[in-house]
Write a structure and sequence with these properties.
Region (Disordered): 389-409
Order of helices and strands: EHEEEEEEHEEEEEEEHEEEHHHHHH
Number of helices: 9
Radius of gyration: 21 Å
InterPro entries: FAD/NAD-bd_sf
CATH superfamily of the domain at 2-68 and 96-156 and 263-306: FAD/NAD(P)-binding domain
Distance between the termini: 33 Å
Largest sheet: 7 strands, mixed
Organism: Streptomyces pyxinicus
Strand content: 25-35%
Number of strands: 17
CATH topology of the domain at 2-68 and 96-156 and 263-306: FAD/NAD(P)-binding domain
Helix content: 25-40%
CATH architecture of the domain at 2-68 and 96-156 and 263-306: 3-Layer(bba) Sandwich
Protein name: Lycopene cyclase family protein
Pfam family, one: Lycopene_cycl
Length: 409
């Protein structure tokens, strides 16, 4: 099979589907753009199920596919509990299979985007565009010639960085015999978990009903754990900390998100670009990605419709990246106590402002006001040390992949 198109989108995860959806319904004033979405067929090479969370004000384009949403968060550390309303923001939970179904319906009705199930083997730069070489679900070669290619696949290795931590987690979807969860409030960070010697850990609960929730154990550290260690931590958190009695695990998720101040390349050839986490959409200090993916793909689609070079924008501002680099350095060097740091911020900064800060949407004066509530000496120490810290290949240089045993980003 040989196909020609204006655009080829490689990968049907959050970034690939988001871009394809934006190209499926061109604006009345925009120029028509044709696109081919190359999605891995069902099997081991297809990305596992995952859950994406983000916050936004009011209704959003994916609300029909949401599992749940909340307007209250809770942060706990020791005997301290911070409850925070986040209105006008809402914290939203979207499962990948629901997003795929929503996207599939929209793309099926579009004459501008064609979906091809194929595994991409390589992308070749050619004059005026690129060739995408793939194998179809039937094993036959598929070649797509496009003017522009957007590759959402993770790079084989992480770029060099001054600091690289891993946010690694395992989650259980649980159903309890008795109603034990508060479905109005997300347990955003519960630091009543045993803290690792290096880094930090917390529990995370997304309650979808009084008797159902996604319960996760998460660590920020340099190395992932074995499955037994995650399961032991989850059992302790569920029964020993939350006091959950009889329950049943219906599904599991497990993943690893790099938290790094590395510079991710957004261009791999003249007309071949990276998008999504592969282009630095993951916020280094939090691991959140979905919201930045939406901003990045919206900008790419707007450039394509306007006939401009569609270089994906940097998903986070230079100021945000610098602040994240300082925080990662301070956490990695043990300059700050992670649980105390985050609990203090949520206790002293209005939650909507803090969430906008974590999403890189605050002004300089707002950033400075938030900075009054961080350990200034520790952060200044890392800020001074950062320019003298060399970028080195990460000891976990291969980019981790979210996996499932049966399985967020």
């Amino acid at each position: 099979m040989r196909v020609e198109s204006d655009v080829a989108v490689v990968g049907a995860g959050a970034a690939g589907l988001s871009l394809a959806l934006r190209l499926a319904a061109p604006p009345a004033a925009g120029r028509a753009v044709t696109a081919v979405l190359l999605a891995a067929p069902p099997g081991p090479l297809r990305a596992p199920r995952r859950t994406w969370c983000w916050w936004e004000a009011g209704a959003g384009p994916y609300d029909a596919a949401l599992t749940a949403c909340w307007d209250r968060l809770r942060v706990r550390s020791g005997d301290r509990t911070v409850r925070a309303g986040i209105a006008p923001l809402r914290y939203k939970m979207l499962r990948s299979e629901a997003f795929e179904e929503l996207a599939g319906r929209a793309l099926a009705g579009s004459r501008w985007v064609r979906t091809v199930e194929a595994v991409v083997e390589r992308v070749e730069s050619v004059p005026g565009g690129a060739l995408v070489h793939a194998l179809g679900a039937d094993g036959r070669p598929v070649t797509v010639r496009a003017r522009w290619v957007f590759d959402s696949r993770p790079p084989a290795r992480l770029p060099p960085a001054r600091t690289t931590l891993l946010q690694h987690f395992r989650g259980w979807f649980v159903r309890t015999r008795e109603p034990v969860f508060d479905p109005t409030t997300v347990e955003f960070m519960d630091f009543r978990t045993p803290q690792p010697e290096h880094g930090l850990s917390f529990g995370y609960v997304l309650p979808t009903a009084p008797d159902r929730a996604l319960v996760e154990y998460t660590e920020f550290s340099g190395r992932v754990l074995g499955r037994d260690a995650y399961d032991g931590a989850l059992r302790h958190y569920l029964t020993g900390v939350l006091g959950v009695g009889e329950h049943r695990v219906t599904e599991c998720e497990q993943g690893v998100i790099p938290m790094t101040d590395a510079d991710f390349s957004r261009r791999s050839a003249a007309r071949v670009f990276r998008i999504g986490a592969a282009a630095g959409a993951t916020r280094p200090a939090t691991g959140y990605t979905f919201s930045a993916v939406q901003r990045q793909t919206a900008a790419v689609a707007a450039a394509l419709y306007a006939g401009r070079e569609p270089l994906p924008p940097l998903p986070h501002s230079a100021r945000s990246r610098l602040m994240d680099a300082v925080l990662l350095h301070a956490l990695d060097r043990g300059r700050v106590d992670g649980p105390e740091f985050f609990t203090r911020l949520f206790a002293r900064v209005p939650a909507p402002r803090l969430l906008r800060f974590l999403d890189g949407r605050t002004s300089l004066p707002e950033d400075l006001s938030i900075g009054l509530h961080v350990p200034v000496a520790a952060m200044l120490g890392s800020a001074v040390a950062l320019p003298f810290t060399p970028r080195r290949p990460s000891p976990t240089a291969r980019l981790p992949r979210t996996t499932t045993p049966q399985e967020m980003a």
